[in-house]
TrEMBL record, chains A, B:
<dbReference type="InterPro" id="IPR033730">
    <property type="entry name" value="ProRS_core_prok"/>
</dbReference>
<keyword id="KW-0030">Aminoacyl-tRNA synthetase</keyword>
<dbReference type="InterPro" id="IPR002314">
    <property type="entry name" value="aa-tRNA-synt_IIb"/>
</dbReference>
<dbReference type="GO" id="GO:0005829">
    <property type="term" value="C:cytosol"/>
</dbReference>
<dbReference type="Pfam" id="PF04073">
    <property type="entry name" value="tRNA_edit"/>
</dbReference>
<dbReference type="InterPro" id="IPR050062">
    <property type="entry name" value="Pro-tRNA_synthetase"/>
</dbReference>
<dbReference type="GO" id="GO:0004827">
    <property type="term" value="F:proline-tRNA ligase activity"/>
</dbReference>
<dbReference type="InterPro" id="IPR004154">
    <property type="entry name" value="Anticodon-bd"/>
</dbReference>
<dbReference type="InterPro" id="IPR007214">
    <property type="entry name" value="YbaK/aa-tRNA-synth-assoc-dom"/>
</dbReference>
<comment type="function">
    <text>Catalyzes the attachment of proline to tRNA(Pro) in a two-step reaction: proline is first activated by ATP to form Pro-AMP and then transferred to the acceptor end of tRNA(Pro). As ProRS can inadvertently accommodate and process non-cognate amino acids such as alanine and cysteine, to avoid such errors it has two additional distinct editing activities against alanine. One activity is designated as 'pretransfer' editing and involves the tRNA(Pro)-independent hydrolysis of activated Ala-AMP.</text>
</comment>
<protein>
    <recommendedName>
        <fullName>Proline--tRNA ligase</fullName>
        <ecNumber>6.1.1.15</ecNumber>
    </recommendedName>
</protein>
<keyword id="KW-0963">Cytoplasm</keyword>
<dbReference type="InterPro" id="IPR002316">
    <property type="entry name" value="Pro-tRNA-ligase_IIa"/>
</dbReference>
<comment type="similarity">
    <text>Belongs to the class-II aminoacyl-tRNA synthetase family. ProS type 1 subfamily.</text>
</comment>
<dbReference type="GO" id="GO:0006433">
    <property type="term" value="P:prolyl-tRNA aminoacylation"/>
</dbReference>
<comment type="subunit">
    <text>Homodimer.</text>
</comment>
<dbReference type="InterPro" id="IPR045864">
    <property type="entry name" value="aa-tRNA-synth_II/BPL/LPL"/>
</dbReference>
Amino acid sequence: MLLRMSSLFLRTLRDDPADAEVPSHKLLVRAGYVRRVAPGIYSWLPLGKMVLENVTRVVREEMDRMGAQEVLFPALLPREYYEATGRWTEYGDTLFRLQDRKGADYLLGPTHEEMFTGMVKGELSSYKDFPVTLYQIQTKYRDEARPRAGILRGREFVMKDSYSFDLDDDGLKRSYEQHREAYIRIFDRLGIDYKICFAMSGAMGGSASEEFLAPTPTGEDTFVACHTCGYAANAEAVTTPAPPAVTAEHPPLQVLDTPDTPTIETLVAHVNEHFGLGVTAADTLKNIVVKVRTPGSDKTEVLVIGVPGDREVDFKRLEAALAPGVPEIFEAADFERHPGLVRGYIGPQVLKDLGITYLVDPRVVTGTSWVTGANEPGKHAANVVAGRDFVPDGTIEAAEVRAGDSCPRCGSALSIDRGIEIGHIFQLGRKYADAAELDALGPDGKPIRVTMGSYGIGVSRAVAVIAEQRHDELGLVWPREVAPADVHIVGTGKDNQIEVALDLAAKLEAMGLRVLVDDRPGVSPGVKFKDSELLGMPTVVVIGRGLAQGVAELRDRAAGTKEEIPLAEAPALVAAACGVTAA
Amino acid sequence: MLLRMSSLFLRTLRDDPADAEVPSHKLLVRAGYVRRVAPGIYSWLPLGKMVLENVTRVVREEMDRMGAQEVLFPALLPREYYEATGRWTEYGDTLFRLQDRKGADYLLGPTHEEMFTGMVKGELSSYKDFPVTLYQIQTKYRDEARPRAGILRGREFVMKDSYSFDLDDDGLKRSYEQHREAYIRIFDRLGIDYKICFAMSGAMGGSASEEFLAPTPTGEDTFVACHTCGYAANAEAVTTPAPPAVTAEHPPLQVLDTPDTPTIETLVAHVNEHFGLGVTAADTLKNIVVKVRTPGSDKTEVLVIGVPGDREVDFKRLEAALAPGVPEIFEAADFERHPGLVRGYIGPQVLKDLGITYLVDPRVVTGTSWVTGANEPGKHAANVVAGRDFVPDGTIEAAEVRAGDSCPRCGSALSIDRGIEIGHIFQLGRKYADAAELDALGPDGKPIRVTMGSYGIGVSRAVAVIAEQRHDELGLVWPREVAPADVHIVGTGKDNQIEVALDLAAKLEAMGLRVLVDDRPGVSPGVKFKDSELLGMPTVVVIGRGLAQGVAELRDRAAGTKEEIPLAEAPALVAAACGVTAA
């Protein structure tokens, strides 16, 4: 279907939309691909719909290729399904809730774990029916507090979500691995630059999990990357390489008077000035008390966490490390109930006697010596040696990760980068199968609890991510697989330039290329060139001044190169530039 | 992608679902194509999703072919767009309304007139930009009071809606005609049997309008059809052929005492018994008083309507005839305000003097003589002649249409049939353009008000309609274009029958056919045959007992025929049966 600019429903804009902050948002609006309807809610114009459809096609092809079967759930869902798993309330304000004319409660599906699980339970019963992987490409709804960045984080968006159902952990691992490979093929085909990051399972309650993050300067997510060995992880998933244990002899523990030292800085300054210790913040051991609540109950356990004094506790890392337990602040009233814990002066020396669990940062290895609290108001202790003066109950990854920290795989310096989550693969395990009592009848007639994987791709988001990664100051630069057209032919308008452009367009289309042709009469060449750069087709052909000499100009949008080609050979040469060989 | 029953996510059911009333609902559930989630809300299983996708593809191809451009609007829409046209309230309980976390009002789009109009207004400004036709294939929401019949009338459903934007009435007619032709191609390709029915524009406020109705015994809509000339129309749109005027002399008007004749039946009996008139109900003239309200105001006008006494007034026809005016019941209090109108005894003789408009059924032509009210309690009049004793102000199509009435085109007897609306094309005119002030700047610099057409196809409903029209007592009978597969190969399971079936499947797939193969081990031939009939692929091949003799069985699902074919020639013969010639 030849796309003619003279009739294409398209208006390009000179100015960035007032509410746009990131390049993809500015460009997709300026180039007439999307339009805002409400915060986080967008319409797709013809060129945008084509890109969305191309992305959808790639995702569908690769999901089909891995043997996943496509289904389609409704977006409007009755409360009962989400009530059973507690998510009707857990989702909080993020869930769009509504009532029908009879007053029955409904929601707009933010994710469909419950529905997939229920569908499999409804259809399958025998171990012979497994494994099975189902997917859908469907519109989802989340009432984000701050919808931003155009279609990067919308409130109505298109997702591919899939679920694998296996009878054992090995099966789940295979399904997970198949998805991982399919995702690699998908994002490669979409021309997205991505990192596969280790991710903690977090609140979803499973085990292995990886995120596909697209590095962009404007990304909402931060991740940790090693540019030497390629290691990448969420901050929550980064592991700290433990230094070797220290065998040196240390002087005995020494209690120091440290009045007016409420912070690590004041403590370090005080002990260096008054006791000549010559320590830094990294030599101090900061002890944080938290309560850990068992989800679904009011039971809490007291926990002390020790991290080097130069690092903050990263609450997200702490949450991930304690999951499914939920950390809560240890408040003044809690301290009153535990007089052994002297606020501001806690040292690990007394924790064993108090019966309180003590977890330390992996850097706190046996034989290391620390300045820490002395468990008396106004007093700290020096030469507090791990393994001698206290023995931790284990380690915990709760300290903040910083650029320059050692890569857990190769030891090089890590960097902290920004990115956008475009995919997530996740060994969910039996959480939803347990909730739904999803069993297969085994060969011995006994039930086998099914284990699940959960896998998502942000389909509409991927369009924005590609725009975010593939643009320059002139406009969009689409990879061929997702571009609305392979080639954009600009007929500049004098003499018979437009007729020749249309003729070339017809020839290229007959060769199987998707063609956009600028056949607008009375529009200046400058405007047409600007539009061709803004719209971003991978190959541009100009039928302009050279026509009299029988030449056209062939431009590569991404490389920024231009060359003159003989018009007679244009069909073959343009097709070749688009990767198509003439029959 | 070979579909193998051994791994296909499918469970067929022996029994009809308890809530199913119509064949398509029963069969689509039993054959594992759809599953109910909530009233009027369904999930699509893999085979169902394929049919839905096939229907979508046909619709998209034909819309693209006619030059319509595809866009995509959100389903979640802010109130403001629908407030401007009054439909936020007009839609009543049918509209799903909700609020976001900030308390802002939203709705789930039941139809998108406002959005399309707004989009065109936002993008286009010059007369050169027109005409343009936009469409989308998108999920819509209507909170039907009685969702029924599975996906025939859902609360969440897929629609193709399109709108044409033209600068003048001729352009609108062309756009309308193009849609009409595209719809004919679409429904022909989908294998749907349909009638194109004249339809009144009704509440939408435009002019020409036709509905595509699929005749089915279980249809919710009734329509009038002439099986002689092919005329078809909504009851609202049927016109009554006027008989020729009567020139015979009639005796003078005669007032009759008619006590205790509250109904036409008692009146007819009374006048025949006491005055020997020998009339039937069709010779009496029944006069109905209504108030007609101007929409958006409280102003009403009194109107009397005269119809032959053997017919009821059809309120839907009356509404359509009076639109945009809204008929309202003339109540007791209204009669008190109009003492000239004697309830139960109204005759048209006095209406001119009372200054009340009188409209009659087209059968009430000049010279016809009637028994009607004498405008006094307990009295009627005979020999009341149209044109002599009263002169109507015009005619109105308000009387019920009955089977056997004359076709307005050819005069044959009409039948009243049932059907399901699958498409609607409609010359909307300037209603929404006026509301949005949608103008194009003309060549003379003056604004031209745009005129619109509105066109819809129920995409998910079409799946059910095909099932409703194409099934037998054994199961579904899909037309090839929408079937999940061209051919269903049944390997019955003994010896190497399944291997041979898989081998044939691979060969057919390589020839471009879509193949479903029943390779389930340990399932009886009887169950496999039953499933193949229920699932409804157009061509079935059985690799069974004949294998030893080198023959397979080729079945045509629709024709119910079976023939033995040599296995060696099976690929070419099966492909030919599927309409594909071997290369």
